[in-house]
Design goal:
It is found in: Membrane. By secondary structure, this protein is an all-alpha fold. It is built from 21 helices and no strands.
Length: about 425
């Protein structure tokens, strides 16, 4: 229990915050935390609610849409496979798996460098820039004619997409408090299961077209979805801003409040946004929290990425006599259920300010789903199992990244830790 001597400085600090205002407190690097890192400074709840609403309105929808098409541009190869990609490119044996692996080689290698670059360039420029890059890669995939050109484009796609998940997580950590972060992360990570649902619907709609320019069948999927991505990236160059100080849509008082809120929780930090520090970067990478959470994320991603790339094929084995469009539509419902749980568990995490308990709650869904899938050949039971697998798997993304961000303090360490978490986690895609 804290003594009266322990409480007195916090009260004085709180009064200082009132007297100086948010701007001075942010500038001087004041910290109001107890010995456990919990914020002691309190802010006007109504002012915080108004600020959160603005952040949720201006930032989250933009990054969520970009991540939606990031995942679509990555996973649409599964839809293209059903539409004849393997036959047209002359793929044999494990060639399709090699295309998936090539993507993950570059995706994993560039995770940490990308997030360091995101910090250096600024998320407001970096995130739209890489979105433009992977949109162009998607369009280029429509014109490949053999495994070699397809592999080259998939490698570049991995380079550009590597910075997306950790970059957005790092970006949101500049704006939200620790207790708020998991749910906000879930608002864009939910786009992964929605990409499976929406991607299947969009692919089905595209395949109903006779042609798109001179392109036919699966080539139309890559071209049209890539063009949409390019358009969104150009818009995001205008709508995203690096940090509160440069946000045109915040008043000065709201900017000061945004800075002070985040700074009040960064124990031992004097700057919310600091210069690159090699020691802090290494500390973030090798933090026990980072490494243990990354291992959990790795195991989870074996399930997530397997579901993303192979659900269309699984559905085809369950419903072999259905049309291609019908098979595409059967991939949608499991993702809808997965999307619900992606939001549900992080929402509870926000309300109760707990994360570990929801790790535990998510795992049994996947375990039961795989047991059902492997224990029977009954089509309806195996299809039902995919719902349970999706329910447990997709909720981990937001919780893992929030866990790392909340427990690594400095800006440099946090950007490196999030990059490490996503990098090690995505080794699970090489299954």
């Amino acid at each position: 229990m804290a003594s009266a001597m322990d409480d007195k400085p916090a009260v004085q600090h709180h009064e200082t915050m009132k007297d100086e205002g948010f701007h001075d407190a942010a500038e001087r690097g004041h910290l109001a935390t107890d010995r456990y890192g919990n914020a002691l400074v309190t802010f006007d709840p109504k002012a915080e609610a108004r600020l959160r609403w603005k952040l949720d309105l201006y930032i989250v929808p933009t990054v969520a849409l970009l991540y939606l098409f990031c995942f679509i541009d990555r996973a649409n190869i599964g839809n293209a496979r059903l539409a004849g990609l393997e036959k047209d490119l002359g793929l044999e044996g494990y060639d399709y798996n090699r295309l998936l692996t090539v993507f993950y080689i570059s995706y994993i290698i560039f995770e940490i460098p990308s997030n360091m670059c995101c910090k250096w360039v600024g998320p407001g420029w970096f995130i739209p820039g890489i979105s433009l890059g992977f949109g162009i890669c998607s369009v280029c995939t429509a014109f490949v004619d053999n495994i070699h050109s397809a592999s080259g484009v998939r490698f570049l796609l991995g380079v550009f997409e590597a910075g997306m998940l950790p970059g957005i997580a790092y970006y949101l950590s500049r704006w939200y408090r620790r207790s708020e972060l998991a749910f906000r992360l879930s608002l864009y990570i939910v786009m992964a299961p929605l990409a499976g649902a929406f991607g299947g619907l969009l692919a089905s709609a595209i395949l109903k077209l006779d042609h798109f320019g001179g392109l036919h069948q699966w080539r139309m999927i890559f071209a049209i979805e890539g063009i949409i991505t390019i358009g969104l990236s150009l818009i995001s160059f205008v709508t995203l801003t690096d940090r509160p100080e440069t946000a045109r849509w915040l008043t000065q008082e709201e900017k000061d409040l945004a800075i002070a809120r985040v700074k009040s929780e960064r124990v031992g930090a004097t700057e919310v946004l600091e210069k690159m520090d090699t020691k802090k970067i290494l500390r973030g990478i090798f933090s026990p929290v980072t490494l243990s959470t990354s291992f959990i994320f790795l195991l989870n991603n074996i399930t997530v990425q397997g579901l993303a790339f192979f659900l269309p094929t699984i559905v085809k084995t369950i419903y072999p006599l259905d049309s291609v469009i019908s098979q595409q539509l059967h991939t949608v419902p499991p993702y809808i259920v997965g999307a619900f749980f992606t939001l549900f568990f992080p929402f509870l995490s926000w309300r109760f300010d707990k994360r570990n308990v929801f790790f535990i709650c998510s795992a049994p869904f996947m375990m039961v789903g795989y047991i059902m899938f492997l224990a029977t050949d009954a089509a309806r039971v195996r299809y039902g199992a995919t719902f349970l697998i999706a329910s447990g798997a997709f909720s981990f993304g937001a919780l893992c990244n929030a866990q790392v961000s909340a427990n690594v303090v400095s800006d440099s360490a946090r950007s490196a830790a999030i990059g490490t978490n996503v990098m090690l986690g995505n080794i699970g895609g090489l299954n």
